[in-house]
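User: Can you write out an input/output pair for a complex, sequences first and structure second?

Assistant: Here is one pair. Inputs:
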Amino acid sequence: MPWSDAPVTSCSVEIPVFLALRDLRFARGRFALMGAVVALIAVLGVLLSGLASGLADAGVSGLRSLPVTHMAFDAKATSEQFSRSTVEAEDWESWSAAAGVERAEPFGNTLVNAQVTAGAEKGEQVNLAVFGMTPHSAMAPAPTEGRSFAEGGGGIVITREIADLGVRIGDVLTADRSEVRLEVVGLLDEPVSYGHIGVVYADLETWRHLHYGLPGELPEAAARQATAVALTLAPGADVSAVERATGTRADTREATFDASPGYAAESSTMALIKGFLYAISALVIGAFFTVWTVQRKAEIALLKALGAPTRYILRDALAQVVVVLVTATAAGTAVGLALGSAMIGKAPFSLSASAVATSAALLVGLGAAGAAVAVRRITAVDPLTALGATR
Amino acid sequence: MTVPAAGAAATAASDATASGTAARGLDLREVTLVHGDGDTAVTALDQVTLRVAPGEFVAVVGPSGSGKSSLLAVAGGLQRPTSGTVTVAGAELTSLTDKQRTEARRRHIGFVFQQSNLLNSLTVREQLLLPLHIDGRLDAAARARADELIEAVGLAHRAGSRPHQLSGGERQRAGLARALMASPAVLLVDEPTSALDRARSAEAVRLIAAQTRAHGTATVMVTHDTAIMDDADRVCEMVDGRLS
């Protein structure tokens, strides 16, 4: 080929995008506007991620902190298992004996209202998410202050959310209606909650008094019950036989999150909002670069007439897209993190590095996809139009 | 890349003339270009034959719609003719693939567009460097050549200006310098005076003629302005797609 004889030297010391960066500088007003939109979306992305993880923490951090792999519920309870399921002592005994089960323990879960009847905040109403378990259970936390609860006697270990209301070790809470007396014996200084309510840990017997609203001696049947069997299963264990035998169903710990009140609705709402946000941002970015590319049509025709391969022009345009998206997303994420840090403690808000990184990556990725569709029209520009009006 | 001195180019030009061929220049043979088909077919170029030797400056005049733009489009490899052959610097453009034609435009053909057609965001100097960046040859020699050409077209004081800061004449000169950057064999000039007044038109055409001789390009200028022909070596007239 005659043209291939010319030597192709690639000793270029220039960055591979010549025009893109100069266009960015020249049309900085327009790109700043676009960048501001992307940055604001990034701020919103960080705040939504923080809110989503904050809500998730408020909903299920209590469950997440339990050192179990599964929970076995009454098979008849198919939704909101924590309020609808009841299991019997025979069930957790069967589970304990089954192959592949490393540990099986009764777990009680109930929500109660109580009043501070002795302590600095006397008269204060508190909501409690009571987790009942045996005192020697692996699920019973080691308190930061005070001691753990003992068998019987109404001792409870409170967590940070309850402590934030002013409840201290030594205070006495009294459950509404049942009048069950609860003495605060320990504090786990961590944000542990369930269904947006602070968790307290109690002995199973105390839990049963609260759950059934019965002070004094428990009836024989109630004394042998719990909400679920907390399980630690060996990886890949087949538990279908013990499930059938006991009439229970083992859900993974993560699957139980949906059983927490409001959790599924909250997470699906947040996911919907985030999904729309990313879709809108991809469309806005795509629309901007469509208009930009259409405006550049004459320049693109000129570049092609000067002998620029389409690949060169596309690479230049995409590099511009990436520079705008990455810069704007980084700036927006930084602002979002600053705002978010100020919100921690004032709202159900928590920042996780992975959630923020995912949010930023999605914004850049989907934005780039939208812009790629827009700059694709570069391929269709005819260099002939560079010659101007046909005469 | 090499920076051919004016003398070397002149030698090349006389060699080509001496051997009696235009192999290093531009050679159009019986080129016909038909737009559309059937009843709506329009013949833009009708059996056009044109040879331009290196260092030769040919002006093509004709009224609007006579096929002048089509001549440039075909000679510059922007459009494939319906029949006939176009040879640039010894290679037959009409037999190349689209990709090869793009490369041919980049390395062997210089365009000076109507109203110069500069890129808004680039300074005059950057306008000149861009074609070599596209070709992956942006090195110190290229920068030196750019400065040399800017000097040659009298824009040294404007090297850092962007198009919106330039006058029509300055834009035209920047466009000419850019077209010469890759040391093209063929220089194609489209209506260089459409945006200029009488005095500046004459000046622009004189500059094109001078650069044609200095760089040994085979230059074709199309224009409807019959008053600027004095500097051309040859004037051809185009009527209804035919060249005389």
